[in-house]
Amino acid sequence: GRFSLIVAFSPTGWTFGKGKKKSPGRRWQQGTIIRYEVPYSEHCSFTELREFVKFIAPTNIIPSVNNHGAESSSTMVSLLLS
């Protein structure tokens, strides 16, 4: 295949709260696909998001929010990596 390992982060801020049984940072794996469920706040700053991207140093970023095509996707990735 195209990738030998895929690591994904699922923002799950809206599923965490009082009475919820899931724990933050839950890990799921099937073969070479690993997904982490992480609490996320839509109120974090863009600077915080950019610092997170810098910290995890991903090889590839695939935008899934406000992705309206190749040009907007490329712009978003460029901003995250700047």
Automatic annotation (TrEMBL):
Tell me the protein's name: DNA repair metallo-beta-lactamase domain-containing protein
The domain of life for this entry's organism is Eukaryota
> Which lineage is the organism of this entry classified under, starting from the top rank?
Eukaryota, Viridiplantae, Streptophyta, Embryophyta, Tracheophyta
Gene Ontology cellular component terms for the protein in this record: nucleus
PANTHER family recorded: DNA CROSS-LINK REPAIR 1A PROTEIN (PTHR23240:SF6), DNA CROSS-LINK REPAIR PROTEIN PSO2/SNM1-RELATED (PTHR23240)
Question: Which residue range or ranges hold the DNA repair metallo-beta-lactamase domain?
Answer: 2-68
One Gene Ontology term from the biological process aspect of the record: DNA repair
Classification via InterPro entries = DRMBL (IPR011084), RibonucZ/Hydroxyglut_hydro (IPR036866)
Q: Which keywords label this protein?
A: DNA damage, DNA repair, Nucleus
Question: What is the annotated localization of this protein?
Answer: Nucleus
Q: Which Pfam families does this one have? A: DRMBL (PF07522)
The family assignment reads:
Belongs to the DNA repair metallo-beta-lactamase (DRMBL) family.
The yes or no answer to whether the keyword Nucleus is present is yes
**UniProt source species:** Ilex paraguariensis
